[in-house]
Model the fold of this input.
Amino acid sequence: MVNMKSFLNVEDLGDLKEALREAAEIKANRYKYDTLGKNKTLLMVFFNNSLRTRLSTQKAAMNLGMNVIVLDVNAGAWKLETERGVIMDGDKSEHLLEAIPVMGCYCDVIGIRSFAGLTDREYDYAETVYHQFEKYSGKPVFAMETATVHPLQAFADLITVSEHSEYPEGSGNGRKPKVVLTWAPHPRALPQAVPNSFAQWMLAADVDFVITHPEGYELDPKFVAGARVEYDQRKAFEGADFIYAKNWSCPGVGCHREDYGKILSKDMSWTVDAEHMSWTNNAHFMHCLPVRRGMIVTDDVIEAPTSLVIPEAANREISATVVLKRILQGM
Ligand code: AN0
Ligand code: CP
Done:
């Protein structure tokens, strides 16, 4: 068993096959460990909006018998300064460096949602806010989408891929499922956390993984080293079993550093529609949600029986239950 004090990267989960076995066990009986969290409190700290993460992680904690406190930093808490060394003469009333140890006083585990600011690449990619929670809260912490990663989503996606794979382990035909991560257009600049984690997890899993995006959208090698990148979306889609669509802004790798966090393209020819799906091996469509219809994907594709967006969201409860269970077992 892995003794988890922090959950950010795929390695934090240890052996992935074991984690998938545990996910299946939880899914078969999600209340199996319903006394594990008795008198333990989860604090969920949101610096950004959420629907799925908020509900599924709270449900997961309840499955384990935990108490839950949710703090929306931007709705009722003091405005927090996150940078050190500033003169706080503006609108921020409190510094994160006091707020974090205070939060740690009232709970046993902390989940953090803190998106990339998309202005300072070094700050975002250093996972500054997350590591401050790790260092100053005195409690185990886990990412609920931080600046560069969204591991609860990637774990749920892996569970979903493995559940819907026609080539399960030991099937003998030696073919791995082909999983394609495709960039798609979006009107607002979005972080790279979801594609970073998805790539990291798929590379660690037993799948044939391909990434496709317009030039300039290359993801950080920290997450995608060794991945096949195919700039021709049609070629990438050929023979695919799973199409995972997501928008992300310029990661500052293949594009100019000063373009980090900017929108480089809104090319609607990348929107996943029925014609795109016809290039695949009758692929399943996946997206972490929330999704903008007509931009990322067309109505018919997301509504098709091959779409997995709802099962993916449902598996967020499972991934969160496994992660919280492991954190509790390590306490
Ligand atoms: C966020 C993102 O792209 O990171 C959250 C996705 C789970 N999406 C939006 O802000 C629309
Ligand atoms: N997929 C996901 O994390 O959704 P929310 O932003 O609604 O939590």
User: Anything to note?
Assistant: The chain has a mean pLDDT of 96. The pocket of phosphoric acid mono(formamide)ester (ligand 2) is lined by residues 50-53, 145, 153, 288-290 (CB under 6 Å). Residues 309-329 form the longest helix (21 residues). The chain has two domains: 6-149+316-329, 153-313.
